[in-house]
Amino acid sequence: MPKYDMPPFSVSAATAAVSSSHSPTSFFDSDIAPHLSCSLPQKRLRVAVLLSGGVDSSVALRLLHAAGHSCTAFYLKIWFQEDFENFWSECPWEEELKYAKAVCSQIEVPLEVVHLTDEYWKNVVSYIIDEYRCGRTPNPDVLCNTRIKFGAFMDAINSMEFDYVASGHYANVVHSFTNETGNASVLELSQDMVKDQTYFLSHLSQAQLKRLIFPLGCISKEEVRKLATKFDLPNKDRKDSQGICFLGKIKFSEFVARHIGEKEGVILEAETGDFLGMHRGFWFYTIGQRQGLRLPGGPWYVVEKDVRNNVVFVSRNYFSFDKRRRVFRVGSLKWLSGLPPDQTCQLQCKVRHGPGFYDCSFTMESGEDSGEDVAFVKLSKDDQGLAAGQFAAFYQGKTCLGSGIILESWDDQGFPVCEKALEIARMEDKSLLGKPVKIKVKPDSPAIEPDQKGGTELNREQRSTHIAAAKQGRQVSFLPMKWLQRLREKWFRMF
Predict the structure, then answer these.
(1) Where in the numbering of this chain does the tRNA-specific 2-thiouridylase MnmA-like C-terminal domain appear (predicted)?
(2) Catalytic residue from among 104, 245, 360, 400
(3) Which run of H or of E encompasses 20?
(4) What is the layout of strands, in order, in the sheet containing 70-77?
(5) Which of 1, 26, 55, 231 is the most exposed place for a label (fewest CB within 10 A)?
């Protein structure tokens, strides 16, 4: 069980304390009222509020308080600072807790610190380490919400008889308040599509969703900042936190090196098998990554990984027209309503956090080996960043239906690695490769980079050629730039 820094909380005592100190919305200017629609202002509730010390959760607390609810704030201490004591320049949780206490003291809301370090290590961190060892790319923020914030924490306060648990997530939960049993609560997109966090909440269960309130679901980030100033919050000028939820100021590479270690391996060019350099271990890289390769003549992208032989394949042609990524399979499916969607319905899909969606086809299949159902998904556009271990969340309109984990394999449209590169990867003695080849500067060519929705965008010349060919009822294939360069060189040698 988690440890508390304070004695067990008494709901009746806290209710009395809040009732005697402040009145609800009348205390504030009338312009606060329009922001309370996601705070269930219709009746007085007992709400456990997760407070991180950041602006979002602090504004969420103040809105719930303004709506007249009896609030108790909880700070979750999940930092495993004992394991990282040599990395800290300062303890980040101490600064966060200081801000959380200051926010609560403004309105005399009680604050408790809940220790979930052991639970976090067992249910999130260990899973992340195992996934990276297997060459997959997990999403710790999805797991943190499912297993810790709305998992272990809810279990810890289960005896305290709160009506709801609230946080500063940008999402909206629509509850059914009819007396009919079996009516499901619904997770919907927030008003702010850029900040929307339904992707991170898509793997929750219906039992968890029924107990949640997200006061910021009806508010944009800009309005949240204005409210922080209006409430004169002590953390009103704090920047938003970035990166993985548990790392704080630790670099991800340091975390991986500490818990998985390093093992030198070779970097090969996918198209030629050329030996380009060395890496510290395949687990430091994910598909589509361009940072950290330290190769000249780039940009270079990680396109495949050989987990067994600790080889990373890279290419400078990752965003080319003939390298499609739009078909994949999804397992570990969880539906917020408890039931899978109708396969005849038009669905949308997110394969990462952000405002971008894809239209998609969705077909359920029975798992052959484990017996677990999987889904076959085809996106409407290419996405070069599909990585095994990541979550794919599914939507119908503004409703989030649920999510699953992208599996290791998709169809044969993955990035092609040449046979020579595959043979070199299987070599037991890589020292026979000698020194890395001298990388030639890539010939100038129009860049093809991903568009804002995560797919690929053809350059103007290729796009116009493709459209013209389509009108004539024929297909166009674009030859790899490296092949064209070699052909050009042979032509000049002949003449």
Answers:
(1) 326-406
(2) 245
(3) helix 11-21
(4) 3-4, 111-115, 70-77, 46-50, 164-166, 212-213
(5) 1
Tell me whether residue 38 is one of the annotated catalytic residues: no
pLDDT in tens, 41-77: 888 999 999 999 899 999 999 999 999 999 999 999 8
Whether 268 is covered by a domain: the verdict is no
What SS3 class is residue 468? Answer: helix
Euclidean distance between CA atoms 113 and 119, whole angstroms: 15
Peptide bond into 299 cis (omega under 30): yes
How many Cα atoms are found within 13 Å in the side-chain-facing hemisphere of 76?
A: 27
Write out pLDDT tens, residues 299-330: 999 989 999 999 999 999 887 656 667 888 99
Band (pLDDT 50/70/90 cuts) for residue 473 is very low
pLDDT value at position 89? 45
User: Which CATH number do you get for residue 68?
Assistant: 3.40.50.620
Give the strand pairing for 164-166 and 172-174.
unpaired
Residue 95, pLDDT > 90, answer no
218 given a catalytic annotation: no
Annotated catalytic residue, options 38, 104, 144, 360: 144
- Tell me the three state secondary structure of residue 263: coil
Q: Locate 175 and state its tokens.
A: 């509850």
Q: What is the pLDDT of residues 265-280, one digit of tens each?
A: 999 999 999 999 999 9
DSSP-derived 3-state class of residue 299: coil
Alpha-carbon distances of 385 from 9, 197, 253, rounded to whole Å: 46, 19, 20
Record the tokens describing residue 64, joined without a space.
């719930």
Q: Is the dihedral of CA 165, 166, 169, 171 positive or negative?
A: positive
- The answer to whether residue 405 sits within a structural domain is no
- Nearest of 203, 227, 187, 223 to residue 62 by alpha carbon: 227
| Full residue range of the structural domain in which residue 137 is found | 3-169+214-230
- Listed residues 181, 202, 230: the one ending a domain: 230
Neighbours of 323 (CB within 10 A): 21
| Beta strand pairing call for 327-335 and 399-406 | antiparallel
CA distance 23 to 65: 9
Cα separation of the two ends of the chain: 80
Q: What is the number of structural domains in the chain?
A: 2
| pLDDT range class, residue 292, cuts 50, 70, 90 | confident
* Cα 462 to Cα 407: distance, rounded to the nearest angstrom: 32
* Sign of torsion over alpha carbons 428, 434, 435, 438: negative
Query: Is the separation of the CB atoms in 29 and 180 below 8 Å?
Result: no
Position 132 scores a pLDDT of 86
Please state the φ and ψ torsions of residue 269, each to the nearest 5 degrees: -75, 130
